[in-house]
Predict the 3D structure of the following.
Amino acid sequence: MIEGFVFGLAIFVTVSQLPKLLGIEKGEGDTIRQFFSLLSRLDDVHWTTFAVGGSALLLLFGVERFAPRLPGGLLALVLGIGVSAALDLSQHGVAVVGKVPAGLPPVGVPDLSAGDAVALTGVAAGMLLVIFSESLGAAQTFATKYGYEIDPNQEMIALGTANIGSGFIGGLAAGGSLSQSAVNEGAGARSELSPIVAAALALVTVLFLTQLFKTLPEAVLAALIFAISHLYKVSEFRRYYRVRQPEFWLGLATLLGVITWDVLPGLVIGVVSMLLLVVYYASRPHLGVLGSVPGTPGAYGDVGRHPDYERTPGLLALRLEAPLFYANTTPVRDRVKSLVGASDPPPKAVILDLGANGQLDITSAEMLDDLVKVLRSAGVDLVMAELRAPVLEMADRTGLLDTLGDDHVFHTVDEAIHALGTSEQQ
């Protein structure tokens, strides 16, 4: 889902910068509408602007390809300012940054009434979701690329602190930006020192150097943001499709949500799709029929995956390979009854391995209680193995243990098989 979100953001940012690169008016609506609007206006391309932006792109990609240790972003910035000033590009129709206000903003408590706070709550919740998700997505992308770990709690604390500070100076909402992170990486940043240096330079810039950016072409800024092109996860999505298609469709749904609606709706689509996928898999757990592993006494495995494993005559040993909870009780019950009915001859007893369960909810306990009664009414006994302490405690509280019987609970499948086998012989 995060990969789809990052891919969608990369497309979102790229399309939003194309008009600046081509010198045409930006369209309205979502990313797809903006893209088709741009295609309809290709006759209006300002070729001087495109030449400036294209040159900056060639410089950036050339430095990345042939001289990766050079700060390509900084070179493009300096050359863009210098060439624009020397040729007076603004007089040739090239959009430039223009006047940038200098000085530090005043510090003060925001004038916020109770009514304003209520009205802003919904917007703030959406911003929180988007900012934190985009920040975490960008952080995880570069953490994976360079082989280090991130702490989401630490990221949230840092973002919260930054936004509190931003509120006191009337600043914008602060968050980790995918495009700016890509530009930072392209400039050669490799450690936490880079934002400290950037903050110091930003402070010096807003105090003394804002006039230098007056002639900077906006096409050069767009080219710098195009540095996120390596975040297009095409090869990664091909791998998802090849390895596990449901996860490919999950990522694609998130990506399409970002570019067809917006960042927040796309994120919501991804989260909902992910939860639905979790529920789908959780509600259909695998129930394996166990057989003894040849040459390994006391070991049992799934005969469906290993046909050479030997089942114990007269017994049906089953292992639930996922936690049993309210959402999957009915499929599990039906599967047990189906396996019993398909056995020829019918088993004398069923051994149910619940080792995957760390706890038991009321619905599951009631289903197991009912299953014990149904099977015994059909002449098939039911015993359980690998029950953890919380499961046993819940079975006792709900009355399941009384229905099952203490002597029908075993530590291991092997112990249950030997006990039932001895009982059968007697």
About this structure: The longest strand covers residues 287-292. Residues 287-425 form a domain with the Transcription Regulator spoIIAA fold (CATH 3.30.750.24). The chain has 17 helices and six strands. The CA atoms of residues 395 and 401 lie 5 Å apart.
